[in-house]
Design a protein that fits this description.
The complex is a heterodimer of chains A (453) and B (312).
Chain A (H helix, E strand, L loop, with lengths): L23 H33 L15 H11 L10 H17 L7 E6 L2 E5 L7 H22 L3 H32 L4 H6 L11 H14 L24 H26 L19 H23 L5 H33 L3 H21 L16 E2 L15 E2 L4 H16 L16
Parallel strand pairs in A: 3-4
Antiparallel strand pairs in A: 1-2
Chain B lengths: L4 H6 L11 H23 L3 H21 L3 H24 L16 H22 L8 H5 L3 H12 L1 H22 L10 H11 L22 E2 L5 E2 L5 H6 L5 H12 L23 H7 L5 H12 L1
Antiparallel strand pairs in B: 1-2
Helix pairs in contact in B: 2-3, 3-4
The chains are: A mainly alpha (453), B mainly alpha (312).
């Protein structure tokens, strides 16, 4: 930590990136490059996800089309393109067709403000690797995301069918609850960086990446970004075990492909936002800021590495966590994430406010903070622990239970064992009888398995 | 303020002379008709969701106009808060109405229309009065209005000049939310029945805990009307679908039971038990004639066996 970390906001310009040298054709190049990048990334992401999940489930994954199955996504895309495009007769035609377009269009907007790298020389013009930036760029990202959800909601409604409608309703509730937590977790970054412009936030992370001092906010963001993109374990709008395919049940061919595309682009978007706001953007760790690796085109590589780290996180979570039940999901959002995010924002705001208005230096503030935490810790020792209801003393060793005690058979809990089966009892009795007859033979040892230790 | 790509095209529109640029005028005359049409759509749309969509169009167009007038923060926050959260809540409620439902035009409160009309006219008069009497100062230009940058300038206004008004509005909103919670709260009359309670009740009731056996399992035929055989060889009547049982289309369980009894007693299914004590059932391989009783064999032998069954 150093004094630069909590620099007050007044001294800096609202936007760091300098676009003054841009011409219209540079804009066009950047915009086209972003779209091409997103579309190819989606193709890669689909294959990446299937391969990684497959390895996690100890199977090879797609490996037929092309070398190592590299052309699998392409084959999938072609299949979707040439499939029959079914339009439901009872659907609300206009909304039904517009909905997937809204989803894709909004997902394409976010990358306009993501800084992929520092200023580079592009055909003689010095320009930042970012289409545009303005003082409220991160809010703009939130706005695009919230409009993009209309695609899902309207798609679910206009299909005029039960499962899509349920998916749409779930999606509305989900976006309202998780976008609050997401927005609040971003606020602490705004407070420390002193800006809502993405380039400014990246340049504020020269010394330390924000995920370290703002760890609670980072954790909340990671959870809510998974909720925001409707991915497992939060994929309730399309829960295939409950709602067939949720809001996209009645969509086929290209219209379905658009929803699919939007979902993967949204994954890339939130990963890019996490990279930019918490992981230092395009900066590489442990390399001095004036090194050649931190200038020119090199940082694009670091940015992509971080982006794909978050994409891997998505797949990893999908591969290891089960889907939430809807009430558990809502409870997590409203009773855990939002209060935690609020408390954290207040804490950060108080510390920053004290620093800025009292003129205390960082060392004093941190000492005071440490004192408060220590005091709280000491006070927590003074509070008597809640008495646990003490059950009857259990004899040492595994407990033998009567599995039919409650009227129906139950499996043994950790530390419990079932009594030996009647057959084993008979065997033991026979062995015991044999032992009395013939003391020389070995009695077979009957072992019991203790479940779960 | 540093140059921003978007701004240079559209923004810094109002000069300190009080005139707008051509770009902003073009934007206004494009978005204006769209907004008016969408606003009319709100009034005349038959489906509630279409009306909500019309409002969304108005809101987003309005956000564009805000951004064009250098109020970037206001424009973006308008989309985040109103389009993203408030209209989403509206949609949440409207979606429960269903796609084919259209608004009912029946007055639920008598005279509602006239009262509404009167209130509307009153509001229009008040607004016209306020707007007509308003006086404008000399335009200073957006660069000066925004000062350092747009969010900072807004923060100075909200937390400086108008902090009291905002606090009052905030208190009002909290009161409204609390009131809504209190008024719609419903105490629990009966104890909560959870998953565990349901499971316990099911066991205590003593019914079948497992799925019912499928008809025809281990029976001689696997038709829907043939009861499955339990582990003791007895037919399980509840394996036959309830509908068939009620209609009386079930195969005769007693006949099957009798046949099984004969098999268990050591005789063939279709021939009576030989008097003089139980003879052990020979293994199928040892006695070719007995093999037919358990396993249907395709071909002539099966046809013969079926004939026998029909006679039996």
């Amino acid at each position: 930590m150093n004094p630069l970390l909590f620099a007050p906001s007044g001294a800096v310009a609202p936007v760091t990136a300098d676009f003054s040298d841009d011409t219209w054709w540079i804009w066009v190049i950047k915009a086209v490059a972003i779209i091409v990048f997103l579309l190819t990334s989606v193709l890669i992401a689909i294959l990446f996800e299937r391969k990684v999940v497959a390895r996690m489930q100890v199977r090879p994954g797609p490996n037929v089309h092309g070398p190592f199955g590299l052309l699998q996504s392409l084959a999938d895309a072609m299949k979707l393109l040439v499939k029959e495009d079914v339009t439901v007769k009872a659907a609300d035609k206009l909304v039904y067709i517009v909905a997937p377009m809204i989803a894709v269009f909004c997902s394409l907007l976010t990358f306009a403000v993501i800084p992929l790298g520092p200023a580079v020389n592009m055909f003689g013009h010095i320009t930042p690797l970012q289409l545009t930036d303005f003082p409220v760029a991160v809010l703009y990202i939130l706005a695009c995301a919230s409009v993009g959800v209309y695609g899902i909601v309207l798609g679910g409604w206009s299909s005029n069918s039960t499962y899509p409608l349920l998916g749409g309703v779930r999606s509305t509730a989900q976006v309202i609850s998780y976008e609050l937590a997401m927005g609040l977790s971003l606020v602490s970054v705004f407070i420390l960086a002193g800006s809502m412009s993405t380039s400014q936030i990246v340049s504020s992370q020269t010394q330390v990446w924000w995920f370290l001092p703002l760890l609670p906010a980072f954790v909340i963001y990671i959870i809510s970004m998974v909720g925001e993109t409707n991915r497992l374990p939060f994929d309730l709008p399309e829960a295939e075990g409950e709602l067939v395919s949720g809001y996209m049940t009645e969509y086929s061919s290209m219209k379905f492909a658009w929803f699919f595309l939007a979902e993967y682009i949204n994954m890339l978007n939130v990963s890019a936002v996490a990279t930019t706001l918490f992981f230092g953007g395009w900066r590489a760790p442990f390399i001095p800021a004036d090194s050649f690796l931190q200038t020119g085109w090199w940082p694009v590589l670091w940015f992509l590495a971080k982006l794909w780290f978050f994409m891997f996180l998505f797949v990893w979570i999908r591969g290891s966590v089960l889907r939430f039940r809807y009430d558990q999901f809502m409870r997590l959002g409203w009773k855990v994430l939002i209060p935690a995010a609020l408390i954290w924002v207040v804490c950060v705001a108080v510390v920053q406010g004290v620093r800025q208005f009292s003129g205390l230096d960082l060392r004093t503030t941190l000492f005071v903070l440490a004192g408060v935490v220590l005091l709280g810790l000491l006070a927590s020792f003074a509070i008597p622990e809640k008495k646990k209801p003490t059950g009857p003393k259990r004899p040492p060793g595994p407990e033998v239970i009567d599995p039919f005690a409650g009227g129906y058979p139950v499996p043994p809990l950790p530390g419990q064992v079932l009594p030996p089966s009647p057959r084993k009892q008979r065997q033991a009795a026979a062995a015991a009888a044999g032992a009395t007859n013939d003391a020389g033979t070995d009695v077979p040892q009957v072992t019991q398995e203790v479940h779960g230790g | 303020m540093s140059a921003v790509a978007l701004h240079s095209a559209l923004l810094t529109s109002l000069t300190d002379a009080g005139t707008t640029t051509t770009a902003e005028a073009a934007l206004f005359w494009t978005l204006g008709p769209i907004m008016v049409l969408a606003a009319l759509g709100l009034l005349f749309a038959r489906k509630a969701v279409h009306a909500a969509l019309a409002v969304v169009v108005v809101m987003i167009s309005l956000a564009f106009l805000y951004v064009a007038q250098d109020a970037v923060f206001l424009g973006v926050v308008q989309v985040v808060v109103y389009t993203g959260a408030v209209m989403m809540l509206f949609l949440f409620v409207l979606m429960l109405v269903g796609v084919d439902a259209s608004d009912s035009l029946v007055e639920t409160i008598r005279g509602q229309r006239w009262i509404g009309l009167l209130a509307g006219v009153g509001l229009a008069v008040v607004l016209a009065g306020v707007v007509g009497r308003a006086t404008y100062g000399r335009p200073t230009g957006l660069d000066q209005a925004n000062g350092d940058n747009n969010p900072t300038a807004i923060a100075h206004l909200v937390f400086g000049s108008y902090v009291f008004a905002f606090e009052v509005v905030g208190a009002l909103l909290v009161t409204a939310a609390l009131g809504a919670l209190v008024l719609t709260h419903r105490g629990r009359l009966a104890p909560h029945v959870g998953q565990k309670q349901r499971a316990d009740a099911r066991v205590a009731a003593g019914g079948v805990l497992t799925p019912l056996p499928a008809p025809g399992v281990y029976a001689k035929h696997n038709a829907m009307d043939v009861p499955a055989l339990g582990p003791d060889g007895r037919p399980l009547e509840h394996s036959v679908p309830r509908v068939l049982r009620i209609r009386g289309q079930e195969a005769d369980a007693r006949e099957y039971a009798a046949r099984i009894d004969r098999v268990l007693a050591g005789g063939g299914a279709d021939r009576p038990v030989v008097a003089g004590g139980p003879e052990p059932t020979p293994p199928p391989a040892a006695d070719p004639s007995a093999a037919h009783h358990g396993v249907p064999v395709p071909g002539a032998a099966t046809a013969g066996a079926q004939d026998q069954e029909e006679h039996a």
